[in-house]
Design brief:
mainly alpha, about 75% helix, globular
Length: about 350
């Protein structure tokens, strides 16, 4: 953490050219996307394993606090993607590095051009939810913000648990191998590191259409506010069925992951590829960042590597399990009670259809 603070402080003091700021922004956006990825994968898995928790997680995402964060997330993804392509091109064509300043400016301009219509589309969903529909009563706004923070405490507790596991693994490794005094020098590139160098560039290209497609469908065409309002799911056919009279986030996921074309569960396969590529790419990138700041301390460096490895393994296991298990219609029924709690929290009246459903369930 001291090294990270030092880097930020010296970056601000140095005031380097556009290349330095591109490097800083690439790292910051990458770390931000990875942190959201961890939260998003765990929360989405709840749609299958803990439907009531997923309903509450989506309600948290539909709060002003997370609405602002969503715009920041989309900026981070788009900028990181375009700047990553710039890096890939220059790595394979070193002679072009003399133009890196102009290319960095071009990346910023391209990012803003892409984000202008994207943000307008997202903003229309925000206005519909907060203004047109008045989905959250004004006197309940603070309650919703507090609720959105409290709902993420289990995620924070889980992160602390993973960090503790990483420290234990690093300690065991140090005991077995023994630590020589760290000199702060980087080791010679090994074959495995050369593999990861190539993987980061290849996976970055493969991720682009998957990530941009996901952003378009889940943040622009049907944003987070539509998950609890849409009667149909974008990217599925009418034969897939329609969502019930009281839409819930769980039913949205159920219909999306149940959609099959030619015997293939299209969105499960799509999301599985996205999960694997983004998780490995993201946490290997985080490993680069953390080991840069811990290069002078063997134990801290090993802890950083263990942390990234354990978190990636957990996300792949949890996210993969939620995509591969059979979906039962019961998960939709379990989500209805939690949906009623959300209506009450926001100061909204329960729809008659929801009241009837709960009465019949009793």
């Amino acid at each position: 953490m001291t090294s990270l603070v030092l880097t930020v402080r010296e970056t601000l003091r140095y005031r380097g050219a556009i290349g330095q700021w591109s490097w800083v922004l690439h790292r910051l956006t990458g770390v931000g996307v990875v942190l959201f990825l961890a939260l998003h994968v765990i929360d989405t898995s709840w749609a299958v394993f803990y439907p009531d928790l997923y309903v509450k997680a989506i309600a948290a995402y539909q709060s002003p606090l997370f609405t602002i964060g969503e715009f920041g997330l989309v900026f981070a993804v788009v900028y990181h993607a375009f700047n990553g392509i710039r890096i890939v091109i220059f790595d394979y064509k070193p002679a072009l590095w003399r133009h890196q300043g102009q290319a960095a400016v071009a990346v910023l301009v391209l990012t803003l051009l892409v984000l202008a219509p994207v943000f307008l589309g997202m903003l229309s969903h925000v206005v519909d939810f907060y203004v047109t529909e008045a989905a959250i009563a004004g006197d309940k706004m603070l309650d919703v913000v507090v609720f959105s923070i409290l709902e993420q405490l289990p995620f924070i507790a889980g992160f602390v648990g993973v960090l503790a596991a990483a420290i234990v693994l690093a300690a065991l490794y140090s005991l077995i191998r023994g630590d020589a005094p760290a000199r702060g020098n980087y080791p010679q590139a090994s074959p495995i590191e050369r593999f990861w160098w190539s993987f980061m560039r290849l996976s970055g290209i493969l991720i682009l259409p998957l990530v941009f497609g996901h952003l378009a469908l889940m943040h622009v065409v049907q944003g987070v506010f539509d998950i609890t309002a849409a009667q149909a799911v974008a990217g599925t056919m009418s034969s897939n069925g329609t969502i019930g009279a009281v839409p819930s986030a769980v039913e949205f996921v159920y219909h999306r992951w149940s959609y099959a074309a030619g015997g293939l569960f299209v969105w499960r396969v799509y999301d599985l590829f996205l999960l694997v590529l983004v998780t490995i790419h993201g946490f290997n990138g985080l490993r680069y960042v953390l080991t840069d700041y811990t290069s002078g301390n063997n134990f801290a460096r090993r802890t950083a590597v263990a942390l990234c490895t354990v978190m990636a393994a957990v996300l792949l296991a949890v996210g993969g399990a939620s995509l591969l298990v059979p979906l039962e219609k019961d998960i939709v029924d379990e989500a209805m009670a939690a949906t009623a709690e959300i209506y009450e929290l926001r100061g909204e009246e329960l729809p008659p259809e929801l009241e009837a459903f709960l009465s019949n369930d009793e």
